[in-house]
Amino acid sequence: MSEIAETNQSFRNWLLSERPQSRMQARLGRFYMVWRRFTANRLAVLGLLIILALLFVAAFANLLAPYSPFNGDLATTRLLPPGGAHLLGTDDQGRDILSRLIYGSRLTLYVVLLVAIIAAPIGLLVGTVAGYAGGWTDAILMRITDIFLAFPKLILALAFVAALGPGIENAVIAIAITSWPPYARIARAETLTVRNSDYIAAVQLMGASPARIVIRHIMPLCLSSLIVRVTLDMAGIILTAAGLGFLGLGAQPPLPEWGAMIASGRRFILDQWWVAAMPGLAILIVSLGFNLLGDGLRDALDPRGSNQ
Amino acid sequence: MVAFDVPRSTVRLRATGLATTIGKFLVIVITTYLGLLAVTFFIGRVIPIDPVLAIVGDRAPASTIARARQELGLNEPLCWQFVIYVSKVLHGDFGTSVLTGNPVLTDIRRVFPATMELATLGTLIGSMIGVPLGVLAAVKRGTFIDQTVRVIGLFGYSVPIFWLGLMALLVFYARLGWTAGPGRIDVVYEYTFTPITGFYIIDAIIQRQWDALRDILSHIILPACLLGYFSLAYISRMTRSFMLNELEQEYVVAARAKGLSESRIIWRHALRNAAVPLVTVIALSYAGMLEGSVLTETVFSWPGLGQYITNSLQNADMNAVLGGTVVIGSVFIALNLISDLLYRTLDPRTRAR
């Protein structure tokens, strides 16, 4: 027993060493510090657990779902209340709501990840280029960013989807188009703080091209604040996507998208409340998870702004 | 007296400073607005519906189609079309709604007061509760109260507004019967109550129709509380952060050293300094409400701009959709800029020296 404790202790010392012997050790050490700060926040850990559970459910949806999400028995299982064989009840098509929620987690994850993958790099590129180049490039790029920032996001996404046609891909594009500007702002602010530092001057002296400096030496430094912001935004993305689904502009039936499920449950709200209530709870839990995780990440990665 | 002798150059500097501030402000207003119009113009161009066919029908002879194209200006170069579009919008011409047959602007004028009434009441509720909550959370930092306020806020950030609206309708209208259901006013009053301003609460008070007023209030209370809750989440969080910032300042220490009561320090000294950024936060949350109205109004069948836009969307009435988008976008931009301007003028510390 004491031996294990001793190795643990020495491992901890190795991680927290002030003179790391390798890059690997330094990185692990920093990660350990962030992890300690993160796990000290119980709500943040709860958020992480929710998101891990979401990932797990989405990955193994076909194993976890007790029934088919698309086919129900109209004769016997229509609008059954929660409990019994159908834990969360069934909808008007006789489909098991739990199974639909489980499959719907894939759609939610799909939307969130795709929006993040599209919007974050755009924002990162615009922000770092604007911050590094300065002058007119900066002025023009930031003016465009501010213009997009001044738009009402949901309304603009609505208009985009109206033009492109309803569907989950178009919803993703519409949300991505409206959500990159804050990332550009953050990336620019980070770029401005490192732009005049000595190590950038050193790379410039060695003859690195501006593109190389931006991509290799500036972008990595913007990543941590960008990741925090993206995580915090994910709840908003989920809510917007669900809102579009609710208005019939996102994923189309019979896809088990949570927002669209609420919309279809709306007709039975007075007598069969669970049809609309359950998907809403799922959305609430998942976006709460992203918010808690984002808050925790922000506090762990950036202790300065923790009281904000 | 030397101190009052301001050098000439400083005066001129101040004047030019003001001029550049106004100039910059105008550039921001104009470019932002042009950007908005460019986006709506672009959306109007990429829609798969051919505007010519929508007007003349698909059986029209080729000559009619050609004439319609000519009249719509679709043969002009794209940038010229954009200029025409901008000048039309600036004249308030958004085209005709296919759904109602009215000019879009007339429709919007009819539905806009409903949205305004709801958003105003929602902001009032949100700030009257949100600001004290935020102050309380900042003062009792780290305690149970702080955690509770934080959880209330987090819940507001995470819950889908349309779902919460549905659940509120289910509980308070259908099960408990405490409030009226969807809509603005009961059908009973449809012929006795005449809207004057379009703001029903004001109209009812002017006409002294107290029964109608009670009915109107009973209809508006649920959606207004819902919107209020969402702005409360945002406002209380920001208030807390501003107050924490103020309470760390030295003047608070000085006030304490003078022996002022804690409540006086909090409400008269710290909150006053936090008030300036708070005004901008409240303005922004008002703008956010106009946006949130799209979902709330759909749930509560509230005959406002949001419902108008979604109805038009479902009927592929693009003129109405884009017109509504431009109007909400304009109000949004205006509120953004006003809050920015307020920030600069209200707080002497941020004034250009």
UniProtKB/TrEMBL annotation, chain A:
Keyword Calcium (UniProt): no
Primary residence: membrane
Lineage top rank: taxon: Bacteria
Assigned GO CC terms: plasma membrane
Keyword annotations from UniProtKB, A to Z: Cell membrane, Membrane, Peptide transport, Protein transport, Transmembrane, Transmembrane helix, Transport
Domain ABC transmembrane type-1 residue range list: 105-294
Gene Ontology MF, one: dipeptide transmembrane transporter activity
Record-given protein name: Peptide/nickel transport system permease protein
Location of this chain's protein in the cell: Cell membrane
Ranges annotated as spanning the membrane: 43-65, 107-133, 154-179, 227-252, 272-294
Protein topology in the membrane: Multi-pass membrane protein
Alphabetized InterPro entries for the sequence: ABC_transport_permease, BP-dependent_transpt_permease, MetI-like, MetI-like_sf, OppC_N
Similarity comment text for this entry: Belongs to the binding-protein-dependent transport system permease family. OppBC subfamily.
Species, as recorded: Phyllobacterium leguminum
Automatic annotation (TrEMBL), chain B:
Domain of life of the source: Bacteria
A cellular-component GO term for this protein: plasma membrane
UniProt KW keywords: Cell membrane, Membrane, Transmembrane, Transmembrane helix, Transport
Membrane among keywords: yes
Its membrane topology: Multi-pass membrane protein
Residues that span the membrane, as ranges: 21-43, 118-139, 151-174, 216-235, 270-289, 320-343
InterPro entries: BPD_transp_1_N, MetI-like, MetI-like_sf
PANTHER family registered for this protein in UniProt: D,D-DIPEPTIDE TRANSPORT SYSTEM PERMEASE PROTEIN DDPB-RELATED, DIPEPTIDE TRANSPORT SYSTEM PERMEASE PROTEIN DPPB-RELATED
Protein name per its UniProtKB record: Peptide/nickel transport system permease protein
